[in-house]
Prior knowledge:
The structure holds 2 protein chains of 2 kinds. Chain A contains no helices and 12 strands. By secondary structure, chain A is mostly beta strands.
Amino acid sequence: AQSVSQHNHHVILSEAASLELGCNYSYGGTVNLFWYVQYPGQHLQLLLKYFSGDPLVKGIKGFEAEFIKSKFSFNLRKPSVQWSDTAEYFCAVNAPSSNTGKLIFGQGTTLQVKP
Amino acid sequence: SAVISQKPSRDICQRGTSLTIQCQVDSQVTMMFWYRQQPGQSLTLIATANQGSEATYESGFVIDKFPISRPNLTFSTLTVSNMSPEDSSIYLCSVEKGGELFFGEGSRLTVL
């Protein structure tokens, strides 16, 4: 069965620090990969996604992620975080051949950015 | 994009009762999805709701416990039946457009 593992459950950073959130998945076939963010009191929204092509994808608000197929990883990065990046971040995977609405989510990482 | 509205946003329920959550989308969609997020855990797909047919449930979820209606292309309901404290969760409605899932703000249920 597919699974997604996020390495860090709770990350605390100071403003301007660099961010990298780890995400690994287990699935042997072709996958679509996503990072979602949930700001306090708001709904889940898409940060970025990877379907195919350039394994380095750029998303909103300066976030990027790199798909490394050999490592089954899709880590999220941001060179300099802001206080407004405080949120919960979810990595998710979907097999294109399956139900397109069925995402397997990781457990989430809570990011706290100190001003 | 898609704008999804859910009602209620939160509720406190007594054990043994049932609650129906409504989901309204601002555009027509073929499939709607219901997810659950239990406290401290990730999101898990409960079922996929197609208009005009019975919902398809994921492993571990059954229709008797989570009946779903899909009367038209913009609306769906999820009922949580005979609730127990273990059903305390956030229930989220979502739709897929252009390979992206859009989510409602969720309905936070607390069962006493």
